[in-house]
Design a protein that fits this description.
The protein is of the alpha+beta class and about 100 residues long. The protein has two domains: about 40 residues, no CATH class; about 50 residues, Irregular (HU Protein, Chain A), CATH 4.10.520. The protein is built from three helices and five strands, in the order ααβββββα. The chain has a three-stranded antiparallel sheet. It has a two-stranded antiparallel sheet with strand order 3-4. Strand 1 and strand 2 form a beta hairpin.
């Protein structure tokens, strides 16, 4: 008998908050507050240039890309690509091991 494969799905914010609330045994409004506080804090620290390291889960960190030269692929013309800030995420060992074990 062939193995039944489970199709991965995308869990969006409202469903995540609902599951979080159930897991914590709190009302959905409190679940929204917990979620919002968690994401706000991560964004606050990373936007200030700090790294947020959640041991076992992962690390959120700021990325600064410097000005660099590039080529427009459509025209072949040389262009200057502006500096920009971004954020990165690196999986923690525990999280990575859980994904790789499946």
């Amino acid at each position: 008998m062939p193995k039944k494969t489970i199709k991965p799905r995308t869990i969006f914010k409202p469903e995540f908050i609902e599951i979080l609330s159930i897991e914590l045994g709190i009302p959905k409004t409190q679940g929204e507050t917990v979620y919002q506080s968690f994401t706000d804090l991560i964004m606050k620290f990373v936007s200030q240039g700090d790294t947020v390291n959640l041991t076992g889960f992962g690390k959120f960190y700021p990325i600064t890309r410097t000005v660099r030269n590039g080529v427009n692929p459509r025209t072949g013309k040389k262009i200057i690509i502006k500096a920009k800030k971004s954020a990165g995420f690196k999986l923690g060992k525990e999280f990575k091991d859980k994904i790789l074990s499946k």
